Amino acid sequence: MQRYEYGDAREAVAERGDDASRVISFFIFNTEVHFHAYASDGQSASDPTVSRRLDAALAACRDRCLYFEHRLSRTRPESDICRAHSCAPAEVGIASETADLIRRSLGYCERSRGTFDVTMGTVTRLWDFHEGVVPSPLSLSRALPHLGCSHIHLGGTAAAPTLSIDDPETVLDLGGVAKGYIADDLAGILLDHGVERFVINLGGNVLVRGGRPRDDASRPPVHAGAPWKIGIVNPRDPAHYRAIVDVSDGSVVTSGLHERRFTRGGRTYHHILNPTDGMPARTDVASATIIASASIDCDGYSTAALMLGMDEGPAFVEGIDGVEGVFISDADEVRWTSGIADRLSLVPTLPRW
User: What is the predicted pLDDT for the residue at 306?
Assistant: First the structure.
């Protein structure tokens, strides 16, 4: 089994993977990431020429991640987002990628039925899920009036876009969609380098292309292009899967209540907050997994799918072309949209003794 070293991204280099790929791994975006690049059919990653091409593609992905880290970070003073906050309400020049991401993010907000808002940083900064801090009702009531996408304004031109935040107390946080956007961007880089088969994992945002490589040693043998089997974590038992979905080309992203939470005073608080009151969303969905061609679609719709519940959530996803969903309830029930049924396998929850 492949072991990854998640060190400084600036020092990361590609190496031979256990599955005949070239692989690179590092820590960035406050998460662990790794990418596998595979030789084309009829080629071998052990060929020096092929290996150099794959390594160059992976190095380009690493450098692109560093670029996005400096552009989109909410904590780096030089980032587009930090400069916009520092200068609010004045406008600042931003990168075209930042403008594109914000524009697309606002679209997901509009389509989320009030469940997703890229200014939730206004409220989430009051919580501390590491130390178990619950904000006071007074602090939430003071923050909520500053919440809302209407405070975010894009301007300028396509060649020189600008961003302004008209309320200095509003916090723009693109963390809910940035990894999906970046994953799609990295896929384009790999394709531009002639890499036809690859796996991108940005801290759980998984994107694959080209299916699996041929593996005659596997039992049963795997033919080239066979779909990857991507596990969906069991929210009751995160060490095991609750379902497995077959994907040859596409992305899989899960939003789950189990990912970040703490218990205080006999009550459990999870990290997916309701824009209406700034408190953890009340939902009977324990996790919502979105499967789509574009990873940004998975990010953009997963939070809404979870918050809308086991009845409305699947119907919401069913109405979006090219997007599928798998829902696990707090009672361990699994539901899914119609287009994924023939690619989904369920795994029973193991009894707890």
Answer: 97
Binding residues: 176, 299, 303
pLDDT of residue 31: 95
- Residues 180-193 have pLDDT tens digits of 999 999 999 999 99
Report CA-CA distances (Å) from 84 to 67, 81, 147, 263, 340. 18, 5, 16, 35, 41
Q: Are residues 153 and 183 part of one domain?
A: no
Per-residue pLDDT, 216: 85
Parts of the chain with a pLDDT under 70: 353
Tokens of 8: 């400084």
Instruction: Tell whether 169 and 192 lie within a shared domain.
Output: no
| Residues 207-231: tens digit of each pLDDT | 999 999 998 888 888 999 999 999 9
187 shares its domain with 161? no
Judge if 208 and 138 occupy the same domain.
Answer: no
Binding site as annotated, residues for Mg(2+): 176, 299, 303
What does the pLDDT read at residue 124? 95
In CATH, what number is assigned to the domain containing residue 305?
Answer: 3.10.520.10
Domain extent, residue 104, equals 80-173
Domain of residue 91, CATH code = 1.10.3980.10
Quick one: pLDDT at residue 353?
Answer: 58
pTM exceeding 0.85: yes
